[in-house]
Design goal:
Blueprint (H helix, E strand, L loop, with lengths): L5 E5 L6 H13 L3 E4 L8 H13 L2 E6 L13 H11 L4 E6 L14 H15 L3 E4 L2 H18 L14 H26 L14 E11 L7 E10 H8 L7 E2 H20 L9 E7 L1 H13 L3 E3 L12 E4 L1 H11 L5
Parallel strand pairs: 1-2, 1-3, 3-4, 4-5
Antiparallel strand pairs: 6-7, 6-9, 8-11, 10-11
Helix pairs in contact: 1-5, 2-3, 6-10
């Protein structure tokens, strides 16, 4: 939807008629909606509540200061300054545009009374401590306002206005709410899926259930370069196996990486026990390998339990390896198994 911003233009009126016209043209060229004192030519306390409501409805506020302070209310403050301070108080984005050389302004467009001159000087000094720009002619003012407002809309967002016929219809709004509810339901199901095992896995071996790992290794006694090959097995459980393999699949891992991790796990668990055997006591043990069928069983079982899934990440045509990654549920189980609990 195309938004238009409403901009309040505040200044003294008769002495800046030409400058205000240039500013209004600049705003209209930017598809903005100008608002300002020309809507309320007779400023008084009765109109002040209306002026405040218009400032509240505006997205941005522009102040123009030249040689006059402006007509004052009962409190002695000009309505121009009251507008500025009110816009500041309610947090409207503000840019002030000050005449660069007040000494060159025509005498009939300047304050004649000393009190007015002092108030204008004090107001100008106050504004100069905020965001402000300078101008010397009506034409230059229009250009400066245009550039400054474009920059302000980029850096400070505002609500803006849209045409009524661009607003969503009742049917579209209902459909949007329905879709939002569906998204919330799907997110809820996803969160639940992270915490629970998939349906139908209750009868599968898992957790602390044991699994016999068959493996081979080589060894020699150090007196020759001839290695003897051995085959044996040891008991582990599915939690231990998954705890070893899962961290490799946080992003993804190839089958070769998973095999290497399993072989390293077997060597760590078995090598010290094997060396206690008389025939292997002085042997160097190397090249531990899990039985190929057992590796396939591990892969299928973890997949059946909903812990891992095949990675669908795009890769080059030359890469023909199979890659695996954790499911959301697998990630949750890995965290429970591997995270260090507080003592």
């Amino acid at each position: 939807m195309e938004k238009r911003f409403q901009v309040f233009v505040s200044s003294t009126y008769q002495d800046l008629a030409e400058e205000r016209q240039e500013v209004m043209h600049a705003l209209l060229e930017l598809d903005c909606i100008p608002s300002g004192m020309e809507l309320f030519p007779a400023a008084n306390e009765g109109q002040w509540s209306l002026i405040k409501r218009v400032i509240e409805d505006c997205d941005y506020y522009i102040l123009i200061i030249a040689g006059r302070y402006g007509s004052c209310g009962p409190d002695g403050m000009s309505y121009t300054e009251k507008e500025y301070r009110y816009a500041e108080a309610i947090g409207r984005p503000i840019i002030a545009f000050l005449h660069k050389d007040p000494g060159k302004i025509q005498a009939n467009k300047c304050e004649r009374e000393k009190e007015g001159q002092e108030k204008l000087s004090a107001f100008r000094k106050y504004v100069e401590n905020k965001v402000c720009k300078y101008w010397t002619s009506a034409t230059e003012l229009g250009s400066v306002v245009s550039r400054s407002l474009i920059q302000l809309t980029k850096t400070t967002s505002a609500v803006g206005w849209v045409r009524a016929d661009e607003l969503p219809t009742k049917e579209a709004t209902i459909e949007l709410l329905q879709l939002r509810r569906q998204v919330e339901e799907l997110n809820s199901e996803l969160a639940k899926a992270r915490m629970t095992a998939p349906k139908g896995t209750e009868d599968f071996a898992q957790g602390e259930d044991s699994f016999s790992l068959r493996y081979s290794f080589k060894g020699h006694d150090g007196k020759s370069f001839v290695f003897s090959e051995y085959e044996t097995k040891f008991q582990s459980n599915w939690n231990s196996i998954f705890a070893i393999l899962a961290p490799h699949m946080i992003n993804e891992a190839s089958e070769w990486q998973l095999k290497d991790a399993t072989n390293a796990f077997i060597e760590e668990k078995e090598s010290s026990g094997l060396k206690k055997k008389k025939e292997l006591a002085n042997s160097r043990l190397i090249d531990f390998h899990l039985n190929k069928d057992d590796f396939q069983t591990i892969k299928v079982q973890l997949r059946a339990l909903g812990l891992i899934t095949k990675s669908d990440k795009p890769r080059s045509v030359k890469d023909v390896k199979t890659y695996w990654k954790l499911t959301p549920y697998g990630d949750e189980v890995m965290t429970r198994l591997r995270a260090i609990k507080r003592a």
